[in-house]
Amino acid sequence: MKYINKIFPYVAILFSTIILFVCVHTFWNWDINVPIDFTQDTITDGGTLTLAKKAIRGEGILSTINFWTIDNSSVAWGIIDASVHYLLLRFLAIFIHSVGVLTNVYYIATFVLCAWFMYYVLRRLNINSQISFAISLIFAFLPGHWERSIRHLAIGSCFALPLMLLGCVYIVLGYVDTDEKKEFVVWNSKVVIYRSYIEGIVGTLLVCFSSIYFCAFAMILHAFLAVISLLKRNKKGIYFFLSYICIDVMSIFATLIFPNLMSKGDAVSQIGATRNIAEINTYGMKIMQLVLPIHGHRISFLQSLRSLYASSFGENENASSSLGFIFSVAFIFSILCVFLDNPKYKKYAEIGKLNVFILLVSLVGGLSEFIGLVISSIRCYNRMSFIIACLSAFVLAILLDEYLINKTKKRTLILAAFIVLIGIYDQTSERMKISDEFAAVYVQKWNDEKNFFDKIELSGAKEVLIYPSKYSSLYNDNYFYKYETIKAYIHTNDVKFSTGYVQGSSTDLWIKALEGYDNEEKIKICAAVGIDGILLYKDGFKEIEEFNSIYNDFLLYVGEENILVSENQQWYFFSIQSYIDQLKNWDVNQLKGLIDLLYSNRVELDKVYYFNEDAIQTYIVDGFSKAEFDFRWSLNNKSTMEFIINKENYGDIDITLSYMQLSDPQEIEIRVNGYVLNTMSLIDYQPISFTVPRSMIENDTIMLEISYSNPSSPASKGINSDNRELAVAWHTIELSDTGENIEHGDAYVDMQYFYEYLEY
Questions:
Q1: Euclidean distance between CA atoms 503 and 268, whole angstroms
Q2: pTM here?
Q3: Is residue 590 domain-resident?
Q4: Is the same domain home to 539 and 626?
Q5: Total count of domains within the chain
Q6: What digits encode the pLDDT tens for the residues 193-205?
Q7: Of 109, 341, 567, 755, which sits with the fewest C-beta atoms within 10 Å of its C-beta?
């Protein structure tokens, strides 16, 4: 009976959360086989769909065998900080084999986990069970959680925050000094470990391996508390927080550094990504957004108030940092208590100090700017609102528990029910409801796409190139279009698609090289390496005219009988099996010549390349605008280019760059293959030259990175409305061999796999 009583609240929370979710979303209007969201970030590992597909297929979190690669290897594509999510998805995948069902179930599961963890922690803080139950439910339905967690698994990781914060709160409130037996775990008569300490370790590990953002936030908070403990000479706090910091650091090593060390030269997608440091303020937190009502609030006045703020000051993802009315009251109360010198409010003041510190870090213009100088990858400090929400939930729970000490059970139940009703009404909106019209459109879209990719599988295609690639001059460089192509992987089981390839990998270089050939040559080269289909994505093209031109060319070369078209006319599949059949009559030398063609003329030495010409696009990796007149502006604080030297023997390489404009005086740092080569000032628009030693050139590749000291936007200077961060308008670039020839290894990617493949 004792264990039943302990389990019952968690069972009640499970059913209550599911019922609330279904009612709030009107989920009965939806097809459970279709993901509730399958757009933008939801598609990637950062969302749920790709990770769910990997879980079902039993693939590793950092790799997949179902993306096409030039060397027939698995693709290092993923994010290891989603390990907790992946393990949970793998467990659920034992019972669920539909990617749509699995995505929906896991999305709902994050709400249940949020409520479970919060309830457990509040009970550990000796909070009344009814109040704990109520607060856990409304914590699960935080606006930021239901708005964004399906697209960002990192947001769904907020379920682990209460447990991570438990150890912190125990120290801050002095609970570890209690003599209560239940607060200790005794290993033997000489070794005593605090239960809250162990719980804090578990919570920290869950946080660190489910969200690199929350891992970074945890380390910031732990460092602050370690300093405070040191100043107060609190020995327990010192070993608590120093050990937590060690876990944070080791987790960052495991999630960011270790995967890159193991990648053996191929970069790991989405690992250690750099961001524009200015985005720290763009995605910083604002106090008003914490306390304002959500968008689409059921009360029209509050809805209008939020809309007025948004139209006046602008918003991005930080719009979802609203705490809701109940937690906002608790948050404000905790801040006020900091400034009240009253022992009665000491508990709330101590937690309030943590909220104050988080504000100082996360607000626009806050301490996050200093942190960004070291870790620019962390930019969305508005997500610290989840920590504030969690701490505010603790404040509210302690406050209500003290108020209810002498109250009857009936009054407590009424208050708990009132909290749930007010919280859910306030924190959710009509926007969450799935209408019949919405369901009809999106369910049909998913099913149409699935049917199309089913046809590709039935056609017998095994390896498919998706076009256009990001290196094509025809490519629509829209942030979200590149995600759509990953649907090809999600909807199929046995076909390998050229999506998700890793920047700098052999596949990436091969696809980049392919852009140097006309459409028929592209088809022949693809056939030569075993690709038996090409998939066009219409929205991936800048202009419809460009798509029509490519389509008509492929139609001419392939024939109408070898084409499949999706119902929405966005996807066009061209089978090129006939070309492979033709190549069977070729000898091995002919095939080798056709394959090696890709690696000739990669970069022509002693040739001046103009930045306004399409030819330069082959070598641009990141950090440049589109062509403008006879130059390209650098974007943000770094520009990256990649060149492959196509000579059997070469010496040092001289590089000369010319430019036409500067946004402001610039100091630049030049790196080659990760090594700092030079720093210089740009003066009087004179061309700059530098020499890349042969010893710096790895695998015949020059990865050139130019960092800028002073990028700025025309808008910030009142010139126009252009908000791009610009530094240098680059005009030309030329690479030249010094003439000193040095023997070195083969410049080509090992193609032995393909020679064996083509022996038939």
A1: 8
A2: 0.78
A3: no
A4: no
A5: 3
A6: 778 888 899 999 9
A7: 341
